[in-house]
Design brief:
This protein is α/β, with parallel strands linked by helices. It has 9 helices and 8 strands. It is 34% helix and 16% strand. It has an 8-stranded mixed sheet with strand order 1-2-4-3-5-8-6-7, sandwiched between helices. Helix 2 packs across helix 9 (277-297).
């Protein structure tokens, strides 16, 4: 796979399968199927072995945000194939889901480039399909920033985890022992480095100061690469939205949780030109390293 263009769900799965085939410390964990029957697969990089810190990376939960899986796969390839720091693989176990909303993502290639939600049948009289998967998680579900209108872009679903894809991710993440030290959600667009919680203004985790500082440091490192400005802010300061995956990750005990809203700030929006994939990956790699180096500081 290359990073000169955007790739579909099957190609993303083939990419992680090829990495697993090429490295004896990597494997594929099938975590279930989507509503329409597409395979959801996690790349497990477990060279560090049992007891080492775990990290979970999630991309593509919003279908139209094509730069999200593109940059996430860029970073994972960089880490496995071109990383100058062996501790990244020797001391941390990695779990990477490149395509968290396979049906919606596939639909953006075939029918509607700006589709956001899943593709489940909602029973809508108007025929509206799908739920916003990043409003469907069971932590402060449906409290803010959602709609109960089945045709809305932010329809949260009839209940938390109504969407099979989100159940699959939840059930997999809960098998990880120890609880991941870091959870990361790749989104676009806005150039923001978001930290939890997002469900309400002023709802901060106990260790918010270290999370906030790390978001600031990572954004500074990212800026040094191409001069791209990311704003490190609390998620709710963008807009309060309950039922997001990052809030749920934090709620189960992950120490660091971030949502990175990738390029740009609106000129192209979701339809970011493919020639920005590699520079976007390069700068995010710098921010990513800042975060991983912080995680490594505490590994004995």
């Amino acid at each position: 796979m290359d990073w000169n263009d955007y790739h579909d769900h099957d190609t993303l799965n083939e990419f992680i399968e090829a990495l697993a085939d090429a490295n004896d410390f990597a494997s594929i964990i099938p975590i279930g199927q989507s509503y329409e029957g597409r395979e959801m697969k996690v790349l497990a990089i477990t060279k560090a072995g049992p007891g080492a810190p775990n990290v979970f990376l999630e991309a593509g939960i919003h279908a139209r945000e094509w730069i999200s899986p593109a940059v996430a796969t860029y970073i994972v390839r960089q880490m496995v194939e071109d990383n100058e720091n062996p501790d990244y693989l020797d001391k941390i176990n990695w779990y990477f889901l490149p395509s968290a909303n396979p049906d919606g993502y596939s639909y953006t290639f075939t029918d509607d480039r700006l589709w956001r939600k899943t593709r489940s049948d909602t029973g809508s009289a108007a025929g509206c399909k799908g739920v916003d998967p990043n409003r469907n998680w069971g932590f402060h579900f449906a409290e803010t920033g959602v709609s109960f209108d089945k045709c809305s872009e932010v329809y949260c679903g009839p209940e938390a985890f109504s969407e099979v894809e989100m159940k699959n991710i939840r059930d997999f993440v809960l098998t990880l022992d120890p609880v991941p030290v870091l959870g990361w959600c790749f989104h676009s667009y806005s150039q923001l480095w978001l930290w939890p919680y997002g469900y309400d203004y002023g709802a901060y985790p106990e260790n918010y100061k270290e999370i906030q500082q790390l978001a600031i440091d990572a954004s500074d490192a990212l800026y040094e690469v191409h001069g791209t400005v990311f704003d490190p802010i609390n998620s709710a300061d963008l807009y309060p939205a309950a039922g997001a995956s990052d809030d749920w990750y934090k709620s189960i005990g992950m120490r660091f949780v971030f949502t990175t809203e990738l390029r740009d700030t609106g000129r192209y929006g979701f339809v970011l030109p493919k020639d920005q994939i590699i520079p976007s990956g390069e700068e995010m790699w710098a921010g990513f390293k800042t975060v991983v180096d912080k995680v490594l500081e505490d590994v004995k």
